[in-house]
Amino acid sequence: MSLKVACIQIDIAFGNPKKNRTHVEEKMKEALVNQPDVLVLPELWNTGYDLTRLDDIADENGDETKAFLSSFAKLHGVSIVAGSVAKKTEKGVTNTMYVFDKSGEYVSEYSKLHLFKLMDEHLYLQSGDQKHLFTLDNTLCSGVICYDIRFPEWIRVHTSAGAEVVFVVAQWPLPRLAHWKALLISRAIENQCYVVACNRSGTDPANTFAGHSLIIDPWGEILAEAGTEEETIFSTLDPVKVRDVRKQIPVFLDRRTEFYQ
Ligand SMILES: O=C(O)CCC(=O)C(=O)O
């Protein structure tokens, strides 16, 4: 079964969850014109990197975000890999991705495992401690967040468990655009999987963001790429292609894990 994905690359208002939610809703509605199966959003789309105010503006238990995503998914019959939001928990604030299916059912959540010190995440956020595998339309997928892509071993944990699509949501800064592209293409080639990567555009007080959301096939070919401004890109993923590439060059069977410790 093929999967049509829409990567919704947007600008994010600094520390303004209400404005961001209205904007996200508007952009998700616009994307429906092309009848995607899955909508993908960028990282921390509710608050942006307004880290010092997270205690006031993060979503309490993710309740508002979950209600909003669930009703949108159900109303429009579309799955959502909902980027991530700042979520207030008893242990502190996490950077958390939610996934909802076409009937509006909660599928999974994942809190960013690798916190990015260069942007002070370790000072304001609690890291997650779980991996992230989920199924959409009979396809096994994984979803990770931004800095996570610099850890090939973390992506491998998911693809060696069978994930055929890796969703990446990000607020990746422009000065490292070359890394963004090289890392995503490498993750696709080495894991022989689709990589669907949704970045943000625009600026905040500290950074200019790269945009260039990408959809990459299991051979490492770019199927769709956004520019630097707000833009939604689409592509249709065919899991059969993943199986064909894995058969042609059987990387997963040829691993010598006994030597990798
Ligand atoms: O690894 C990088 O260069 C960017 C990572 C990042 O911006 C993040 O994880 O938020």
From TrEMBL:
Tell me the InterPro entries matching this sequence. Answer: C-N_Hydrolase, C-N_Hydrolase_sf
SUPFAM superfamilies assigned = Carbon-nitrogen hydrolase
Q: Which domain of life is it from?
A: Bacteria
Q: Name one Pfam family in it.
A: CN_hydrolase
Q: Where is the CN hydrolase domain?
A: 3-239
Q: Which CDD domains match?
A: nitrilase_5 (cd07583)
PANTHER family in the cross-refs? DEAMINATED GLUTATHIONE AMIDASE, NITRILASE-RELATED
| Similarity remark | Belongs to the carbon-nitrogen hydrolase superfamily. NIT1/NIT2 family.
Question: What name does this protein carry?
Answer: Amidohydrolase
Q: Which organism is it from?
A: Priestia iocasae
